[in-house]
Specification:
The chain has 224 residues and is α/β, with parallel strands linked by helices. The protein has 6 helices and 8 strands; from the N terminus they run βαβαβαβαβαβαββ. The chain has one domain: Metal-dependent hydrolases (TIM Barrel, Alpha-Beta Barrel). The radius of gyration is 17 Å and the shape is globular.
Length: 224
């Protein structure tokens, strides 16, 4: 079976000791495509280097993570736009809204998401959405941007049936499912039976959110 890992931070420093080995373990497990979400200007070089080392397996996105949105977010967005104009990427992301820690930069996160939604449509690329503790805020902007051409993924989906139905109603947008589905109190065991497989994609979000029985350890694409 051919597996596509739709969200892996395999360029992370946590993989420095065994990055190539982790990739080979993934391929041995049947994962032959790994999509790499960008975080901000600090992650671009490592991400593109990994893609260059394994061009048939690793494919880079370009985006600005909401947790990297701050006072200089406009400079980050200009850099993002420059990269999108310079060379191909497989998606815009990861981007979105994250209110888990605080709401200090909510207006800036909203503006950054609007810009990246526009860029996704401009370059005819899927968008990869991060919506931790901010589903409603992010969904509102995505729905506003959906004109029939927008497509993408609500990455690390962990909300309820009602939220899943709202995503499906958008058309062209799927939900990324990873290790949380294996957590005893993750809640997805009550949600996934109500969602057709055609609306789902698989991801690890490594090195985070390792599934049972690896929970608490470093996650990797082989655990997909």
């Amino acid at each position: 079976m051919r597996l596509i890992e739709t969200h892996a931070h395999l360029y992370s420093e946590q993989f420095r000791p065994d990055r190539a080995e982790a990739l080979h373990r993934a391929v041995a497990a049947g994962v032959d495509t790994i999509l790499l979400p960008n975080i901000d200007h600090t992650s671009i070089d490592a991400m593109l280097a990994l893609e260059a080392d394994f061009p048939t397996t690793c494919h880079a996105m370009m985006g600005l993570h909401p947790c990297s949105v701050g006072p200089t977010f406009e400079k980050e967005l200009h850099l993002l736009e420059d990269w999108l104009a310079r060379r191909p990427f497989v998606a815009v992301g990861e981007c979105g809204i994250d209110l888990y820690w605080d709401k200090t930069y909510l207006p800036q996160q909203q503006e950054a998401l609007r810009v990246q939604l526009r860029l996704a449509k401009q370059y005819d690329l899927p968008i990869v959405l991060h919506t931790r503790s901010a589903f409603s805020e992010a969904f509102e902007l995505v729905a506003e941007a959906q004109d029939g051409t927008l497509r993408g993924v609500f990455h690390c989906f962990s909300d309820g049936v009602a939220e899943a139905e709202r995503i499906i109603s958008l058309g062209g947008v799927k939900m990324g499912i990873g290790g949380v589905a294996t957590f005893k109190n993750g809640g997805l065991d009550k949600v996934l039976p109500h969602i057709a497989l055609e609306h789902l994609v698989l991801e690890t979000d490594c090195p985070y959110l390792a599934p049972v029985p690896y929970r608490g350890k470093r996650n990797e694409p082989a655990y997909l």
